[in-house]
Fold:
Amino acid sequence: MNLTVILRKKMGQLFSLDTWLPTELPEYATGFMYTLGSLTASSFVMLLLSGIVMAANGPQWWTISQIGFFVRGVHFWSVQAFFFFMVMHLLRVFFSGAWRGGRQRTWLLGTLALLIAVPTAFTGYLMRGDFYSQWNAVQAKDGLNALGLAWFNPLNAGQMYGLHVIVFPFVLGYIIAVHIAMVRIKGVVPPYPTHEELEEQGVLTTTDKKEGYHVSSGR
Amino acid sequence: MYHPDVDVTHRYKYASADFVKHLLSTTVIVAILTMALSAIFHEPVRPAIKINQYANQHPLEFVRVAMGDLDGKGEIADYGPPYNHGTGMVQDFVQKWIGILHPVYPREDFVLKPLQYASVINPKIKSYLNRFDKASPVQQKIWEANYNRALSHARYEGGAIILPSGSYGPVAGMMQGLLQVGQSGLMTGALDRSPADYQFDNQNSLLFLQGKPLHNAASKLELKGDQWGIIHEEDAPYPGPWWMTIVTAIYQIPFIAHASAADAMALGSGMILFLFLMFAPWIPILNRLPRYLGVHRLIWREYYKKYHAKDFTM
Structure:
């Protein structure tokens, strides 16, 4: 087993131009419904940009300066956009049964991104330094303590700041990047086959279409 | 032959696309949208509750909070792990098993230590503390109990707590001193002291405020758990963290809301629901559901129209 060879193979595909810079896309994967994932990624980019400006200026800046207050507003609305587009994207993907064709892990990573996004946003709420931060911190501690997660101390602003500006964004960004790469490598899930197609292929097991049809292999 | 586990994208027609332009366009759209929203609506802010503000506006409540910390009956004084050896807020064995990670002993940390710092400036406080320290634990408990009973008849006049006459020992003087520390604005600094020189941790000042001071303020804003608090964060029309709606809804179930392990149950069941979503591709029935719901006909309407007009109109 040559680890270098395995890595070369994996990374060659993961970082290839075909993965990241496609020049053609399937005809069925166009239109607004297929922009939701990109809008989510763009919201994440806005979160990173506004977050970098805020982190560079330090925690006091966004509470006392006019420009800081504007940038923190951009950050706040980007969070709203991020979750909005992400949930819309998730709905589109769910209704498309997008895990078909060996795409289960792509779905799993997408939902994992949503799961990680929750504490990422939550630690951000703790950085506002206002009543929301105080209230969120004291309210969250009981649940975390009860679940055995006391190490994560929402009352410790220093720990929360580190988690919010580097640890969670790094993990979330990594998951999103691999998720996008997997979508590209596997290709966007094709439409469910129609009755017509299934009949042609001899998969349809009932002749009475009104009673519905059954695909032997399930999903 | 159609098989869901076989990748079949090559069978479909591809159209030329400019992926970079597409991503740049969505980013510009989000940038304009978020900058406009920030310029017009800003980010909502509700000022933080400060200890000096609370001590000035609610002096008797401040003293009640401090007495709970001194006599060990307050919520944090009797909390349990990860803060101390109490039992009042232990929801399950995992919490106990984790142990004391962030030690907080409110009697010392919230009352006696701040008074010690203050005694350097005010020698009167030093004499109260000396008398308190020299008394037996039984005597200390008697003074504390007497003071607690008298508090319900107390008045606050001209900066002083006026109590009916009684045997409070040095406790009355100590509480008057602590109230002054609280009102002065020095209390937060006295609470948030780390062994290092720099302060990055506001655990103790938040724990001091977490009972009545923060809960009363939150209750008025409908932010408590049983008031759909998690998603009520902002004033209308500002959106709160609406992505927590499902967890918030679980908190409203009476069986969970009134359980002693309410937080563990609500967050635990929220996580189990989420696991269903995560593992949907592997869960029978759930993984076939979208096909039968038929929303995909809307998503790929154009495609079906173009290639399967007969089938689509069925």
In short: The longest helix of chain B spans residues 19-41.
